[in-house]
Amino acid sequence: MAGIQPFQINIPKEEVDRLNQKLKDTRFPGGPIVADAGTRYGPPYEWAQTLYNTWINDFDWYSVQNDINKYPQYTNSIENLNIFFLHARAERPNAIPLLMVHGWPGCFWEFSRVWGPLSCPSDDEDIAFHVVVPSLPGFCWSDGPHRSGWTLQDTARVFDQLMKKLGYQEYMVQCGDWGHFVGRELASKYTDSCKLLHFNFAPSPLPPGVEYTDREKTTVDRENDWLENHIGYAVCMRTRPHTIGLALHDNPLGILMWVGEKFIEASNPENQSDPSWTHAILTTASLYYFSNCIMSSMLPYYENVEHDKFAEFVVQPENRIKVPFGYTSFFWDTEPSSRRAVERTGELVFYRGSVMMPGISLHSSTRVD
């Protein structure tokens, strides 16, 4: 595996101390923008204050670092980009190579709950995987692109080369958010190597002239609300990434709010009181801060498809998925899609939808739309 270098996360104590001091030096405004702000102006003020206090008083960076470092990490230069990746190899001889691709405001760590069980399943009957989790260019110790115009299709080409360097001539892919576009490229153009695909995000248009089901009506309403009231972060990053990037680069509370907002706006509200969710937000904010990636992580927004063009992009013939793929639709995601929408974009063989609306709680592996 020529050129692949071992890597471990090792944030110097002085940098951890500096983060803590910067947090302690932060002055809160003393209250919300208006007394009855609630959630209309952004995340609730009380939520931000509580998260901030938890970061200062209860969050243990070294525990996170030690947990990540239990698994092998590497870097490799491909097309003049140094790419960071975690590689959890299975011991079983019949293990399946699996590429897992994150989005924003995620990072490689969002797969931390599964890279262990997938590579070392507890049940002898379960399938084992060689799990490869790279950071997208510009995220968490992967170089940012050295030129403008770098797209997620370019990233797909680099990740295909990475898998082949690791000896995986054929592999499967799991991805969501911006990673969806990496996976779609691999499954439409690199079918000699990408053999199976699973999405947890797949914005897709419904067939014209159909009558919407109850779930489709609700998810369309959710998507419209997202585009109308929650898309400001994307507009900033796809138009002025230098402006907001420089403002946040050395600003841990700024990173926390910019990242944390999406964690609570694109997730099931019932899960947000779980301490593990708070831990996930603080870990992600810490990783962005320590790896200096908040500004370069914005490039996918600047260089790729705008949100209101997602559905148009996926039905273009050249972007049609040519390998078998599955999709799990989560209602609280930003653009939950129905089976009959997603199956228009490729060779769909598996669909699982969830409905979580007032008075409804339903899961199905067949059709919930």
Automatic annotation (TrEMBL):
<comment type="similarity">
    <text>Belongs to the peptidase S33 family.</text>
</comment>
<dbReference type="GO" id="GO:0097176">
    <property type="term" value="P:epoxide metabolic process"/>
</dbReference>
<keyword id="KW-0378">Hydrolase</keyword>
<dbReference type="GO" id="GO:0004301">
    <property type="term" value="F:epoxide hydrolase activity"/>
</dbReference>
<dbReference type="InterPro" id="IPR016292">
    <property type="entry name" value="Epoxide_hydrolase"/>
</dbReference>
<protein>
    <recommendedName>
        <fullName>Epoxide hydrolase N-terminal domain-containing protein</fullName>
    </recommendedName>
</protein>
<dbReference type="InterPro" id="IPR010497">
    <property type="entry name" value="Epoxide_hydro_N"/>
</dbReference>
<dbReference type="Pfam" id="PF06441">
    <property type="entry name" value="EHN"/>
</dbReference>
<feature type="domain" description="Epoxide hydrolase N-terminal">
    <location>
        <begin position="4"/>
        <end position="111"/>
    </location>
</feature>
<dbReference type="InterPro" id="IPR029058">
    <property type="entry name" value="AB_hydrolase_fold"/>
</dbReference>
